[in-house]
Amino acid sequence: MDLIGKFKKGLSKTRDILLTDVNELFSMDRKIDESLFEELEEILVMSDLGIDITMEIMEKVSKKSRKLSTADELKEVFKDELKALFPVKEETLLNDPKAKPHVIMVVGVNGTGKTTTLGKLALKYKSEGKKVLIAAADTFRAAAIEQVEIWADRASVSIVKHRAGADPAAVAFDGVEAGMARGMDVVLIDTAGRLHTQKNLMDELRKIKRSVSKRMPGAPHEVLMVLDATTGQNALSQAKLFNEAVGVTSLALTKLDGTAKGGIVAAVAKSMKAPLKYIGIGEGVEDLQEFDAEIFVDALFD
Amino acid sequence: MFDNLSDKLNAVFKKLKGRGTLTEKNIEEGLKQVRLALLEADVNYRVAKKVISDIKERALGQDVMDSLTPGQQIVKIVYDEFTTMMGDEHEALNFGGATPASIMLVGLQGSGKTTTAGKLALFLRKNGRKPYLVPVDVYRPAAIEQLQKLGSQIGVPVFPSTAQMAPVDICTEAVRSAINEGCDTLLIDTAGRLHIDEELMAELEAIKKSIKPSEILLVADAMTGQDAVNIAESFDKRLNLGGVILSKMDGDARGGAALSIKAVTGKPLKFIGVGEKTTALEPFYPDRMASRILGMGDTLSFIEKA
Ligand SMILES: Nc1nc2c(ncn2[C@@H]2O[C@H](COP(=O)(O)OP(=O)(O)OP(=O)(O)O)[C@@H](O)[C@H]2O)c(=O)[nH]1
Ligand SMILES: Nc1nc2c(ncn2[C@@H]2O[C@H](COP(=O)(O)OP(=O)(O)OP(=O)(O)O)[C@@H](O)[C@H]2O)c(=O)[nH]1
Ligand SMILES: [Mg+2]
Ligand SMILES: [Mg+2]
Prior knowledge:
Chain A is built from 12 helices and 8 strands. Chain A is of the alpha/beta class. Chain A has an 8-stranded mixed sheet with strand order 3-2-4-1-5-6-7-8, sandwiched between helices. Chain B has a 7-stranded mixed sheet with strand order 2-3-1-4-5-6-7, sandwiched between helices. Bound molecules: guanosine-5'-triphosphate (GTP) (2 copies) and magnesium ion (2 copies). One guanosine-5'-triphosphate sits at the interface of chains A and B.
């Protein structure tokens, strides 16, 4: 597929994030009535947007709708509400000379797609001409090191690893050290999946972060939390506890190539004021897209 | 959040103390709260709608028990309904059909199949069977190594698949190899796939056709949201599932997916995964799941006694 084709494919996936067929709902001559609101509510809930945000949007939209007569006019109101859910993207520090290497720690619950997303990012940075190193700090899960090694290979980037069962904080430390010594631009730290409710494992994550900043003050520059689009309301609890433990700075939403809409990411982004930076749309190395709320919401309705 | 559904309902029903009958009007407001609780627990929107209308029917005209407030009475009706919905007498694993028996694990990417294969192997061995682990994920980086490591941790033999082999060939060869090794139950760890991935879903059908497994189990993540019904329905339609295992129940997910999946497939929930270790597997209890979905914790015990 050529680049344009890929971009379009990505966009159509982006379009799928929250809703499908919303345009149908807002067809020109449809009346604004109870049944329209009911359908709207169903779409929002089924997109995993969460009951709080759904109620909030429904209330706002219904208030504003009193001055309007057709569903088509309502569309703009609805669009604005959706856009407002996503915080504006922050400036990335990637080109800050003081932050070299730019250290990114990838975190999240089990099986969301951390390692895969990290592998895709490695290739993305590499293809931008950056020098990239991966620290294999998931020393717990069976064959996690072997998995991330294959990704390092695919992206032809360096890797720092210890043996299985080693202290992940030590791996992260060594990764940053090697990154500094070898003049890397980006260091990506793969961490083991862990449920946010497991105190000892969250403490371990804190320790990894501490050891990174011990070696390089200011690092990690980014803590990327990976959410699975299939996840429902639990993502809110995940985000809250990961944020409390290590301060999440940005989000990635994976598995949008399925039928799940991943709407909960809007609630997460809103509550943490962290931008959704990337979306995963497949298992391949090229299946990563940057997320842009403006483009996304507009695409939803064009 | 919703840890006090009973309290919320009691507030709603304050006016209606002690005795009395549940009428259309007085349960309407209570059921609204229940509906919100279900949606917060990730019960599918349409399933919740149906459940609520069923419950309304059941509740209508019921006398409020002396020992309960109307709020508690509603919760009890909902709880009983859920327990019945999710219960099933046939929750044991099925080893019927061809010998050696084989159990196939299927599901979305990252749901917990490989880990669950290791857990089931240990469980089966403790129950006097001779399990044989079969890695069939030739796609994901290091998926075969992952199962090999789990197998060696628990001392269960693993078929030496390679990523160059075709999945169906792996399975047919593994059956012969299991017999040679003196094993009686194959655990087939398939690659994660999307239910809408035509090619990979066809691959599962081909495996099923070639080895005629005694059981195909869907491994689903307890944190799954509204899409759980699409996923379960698609896998069930293609493969006729024997049951479901809900993984990652050790977190704080309400697990509404359990109810949704049961409602659309009718297939029994057989086990839950409660951790990453190979010992972290438990049988599924419908009553516990019902109180978890309702966010009731142990506060239900007083209702059960009533
Ligand atoms: N369809 C699809 N699959 C994905 C995507 N991202 C990751 N996966 C798959 O999801 C599964 C889990 O991905 P991993 O990268 O291993 O997840 P993880 O978070 O590192 O898992 P743990 O380290 O075990 O917690 C793998 O089968 C990946 O191929 C995506 O965007 N789409
Ligand atoms: N906390 C917890 N983690 C689990 C449970 N079951 C599996 N996991 C973790 O979830 C992640 C994914 O598990 P896997 O067994 O690799 O999932 P999979 O379905 O085989 O993944 P793919 O083969 O990539 O599709 C790993 O980090 C496991 O350790 C569970 O019951 N509780
Ligand atoms: Mg990983
Ligand atoms: Mg697997």
